[in-house]
């Protein structure tokens, strides 16, 4: 094995090709994300950030190359194995996608039951743990519309944490939030990251990147540039 690659990364891509229909969105993508790393994903609108994230959580088929995510080989992952991969990753989108016709706790129970949890006591305990983690332990009985946008996003993050993922994939998680709430959501991601969960976060928010500098992957002209391998300026890159 080349020394450039670690023995046990959470995410590993080599020569990956990502397509939407007949369009090649990203070509020859090679990078790894280690356990507990925090990585930003940046690039202009349409440069391929969401397509890359979707490929990572097996929503978009891999068009070529080698890819493994939390130990699953995406080259030969049968459809029925996708839920097992999804249990080991957490996904956070820009629009919250909570079920608005049920309480916060019911939203979380829904996911736990769908991922095989049966024991009522354990379910209750896990819900209380994740809500505590995001600072909303009093919100279990509330309906989503009774919460602010920032609070709803915290619930989405709590939901992503239910099955103790090795990595969180976040697509513009602060896109709809005001600057103050954005900072507090970012603090939450950093806190989760400090306790060992890797994070890959797509964002257009340069202030956030400047304030909390981390490794950056930049999608540009069909390729990915990695700040861990080469220096690049963000100012002209977006
Ligand atoms: N479902 C789809 N079908 C066909 N083409 C798509 C689809 N989704 C995205 N594309 C195309 O793939 C390319 C990459 O889009 P993608 O959404 O990955 O970019 P992005 O960097 O996430 O953009 P944004 O910052 O606006 O979210 C674009 O040219 C887009 O038009």
In short:
This is Cell division ATP-binding protein FtsE. The protein is of the alpha/beta class and 238 residues long. It has a single domain, classed as Rossmann fold.
Topology overview:
Layout: E1 11-20, E2 23-33, E3 38-43, H1 49-56, E4 64-69, E5 72-73, H2 82-88, E6 89-92, H3 104-114, H4 120-133, H5 149-161, E7 167-171, H6 179-194, E8 198-202, H7 206-211, E9 215-220, E10 223-226
Helix pairs in contact: 4-5
Bound molecules: adenosine-5'-triphosphate.
Adenosine-5'-triphosphate (ATP) binds next to helix 1.
GO molecular function, one term: transmembrane transporter activity
Function: Part of the ABC transporter FtsEX involved in cellular division. Important for assembly or stability of the septal ring.
Family: Belongs to the ABC transporter superfamily.
